[in-house]
Protein 1
Amino acid sequence: MKLNPYLNFNGNCRAAFEFYQQHLGGKITFVMTYGQNPDAHEAAKQPDAILHASIEIAGVQLQASDVLRDDYQPIHSSYLSLVLDSIEEAERVFGLLTEGGQTFLPMQETFWAHRFGMCRDRFGVPWMISAERPMPAAP
């Protein structure tokens, strides 16, 4: 069994995945545009928009597409949570993701993490970024 998060973008899926590949160490593993779709009824609207794409980030397969409808809504109340190995790396990634985006909770120390912050990137994706503290084992 696998659980693959699936995101919808408002026409900027390709740019988001290229950004994640460059800055988060991701690897784009699949891209298909609406124009490449054999069932081409949607292709005439935006042939270069992404029908389906996959990227692997930190061992997780993230999938996405561009929404071609006027009813696109940004993600609310769900986040991609990315845990980094160091304070410096967490701060670097948070800085990249907030550039052109929105900060919900600035990067800070918490009781559970050396650093933790929440933001929405320039592509509309909400993130929680952390450099975790070692936690005691559960009783």
Protein 2
Amino acid sequence: MNLLIERTIEENAFDEVIELAVKAALAEEDMDENCEISVTLCTNSEIAELNEEYMYRTGPTDVLSFPQLAFDEDKCIYEESLTYNGDNLLLGDIVISLERAKEQAEEFGHSERREVGFLTVHSMLHLLGYDHMEDSDREEMQAKEKKILAAMNLPRE
């Protein structure tokens, strides 16, 4: 697995939980680890710019996902969306606002590590074809998140 973690702010405390979350999500989906994922850790103002540019929403958000793969309704990958960097399948990009993650950790009463782990798992599931637009999809995605976080020993506190 090629995990690229980039930062616009100096914060190295979450690299281990990000890697753990990526591996746990891949394992849950029986995905080969021959893949590449980019994770960017940034500020609220930086993610707000991306949120407006790509999602057409104003203000900061906690996490953005930019999947490389396209899936059909049965979560089968469209072959034409497969792109490789050497032997690694490109899954996509994740952008996490560490400022927002820290705010949410305090708001929800759990650790910053747990919140960053959750946001990474949530975003990985988006890269792997899940969404939460419909109630049934949201329930399926939340069940996956809960299972993966429990396997990581990061249940909601």
